[in-house]
Amino acid sequence: DAGITQSPRYKITETGRQVTLMCHQTWSHSYMFWYRQDLGHGLRLIYYSAAADITDKGEVPDGYVVSRSKTENFPLTLESATRSQTSVYFCASSSGSFTETQYFGPGTRLLVL
Amino acid sequence: AQSVTQLGSHVSVSEGALVLLRCNYSSSVPPYLFWYVQYPNQGLQLLLKYTTGATLVKGINGFEAEFKKSETSFHLTKPSAHMSDAAEYFCAISSGYSTLTFGKGTMLLVSP
Lengths: 113, 112
Hints:
A: 113 residues, seven-stranded mixed beta sheet, 0% helix, B: 112 residues, six-stranded mixed beta sheet, 57% strand
């Protein structure tokens, strides 16, 4: 399917476990982003990528790792999940930098017990 | 540094009434401003954006916003609310080469 997809859509894990959230886009957009959405905070940028093999930190990167070996994929890994990482995670992509429209995936709801 | 402030975490209107969602921004350079909408259990989608040029920007679903530099505002309006407009709305800013910064969101409630 065309567009931007995320998997899984829902995930329950335990503290200390490693979790990987997947993001895939079919537009060949150069930029991809990971945000987390929490009540009272809006969306906060975790990491972004300007191209394959180029990633950079956003506002809240601690505890997360990203990679981008292919243009279309941008996985987000929680190396050792903590309860504070319970959140809704959104992946987005855009054809250009931050002034271009970002297209969002449907989100992944993560619960860390 | 850049920031946006959305006034009111919740706004309630009756169907057919004017919708006004407020957004004020802070930026030391000319900003790009956006309004995104999020329907329940979905990702965000762009309503409209201001880059340069015309200060009145028209978006999808009858929404529009006016960039007012003197007031550092980018308020979102719609003349007549519809039940389907019930959603959360986010104002966002990008200035210079900085990342997109979102406001905390305003939940629009529409009653019949």
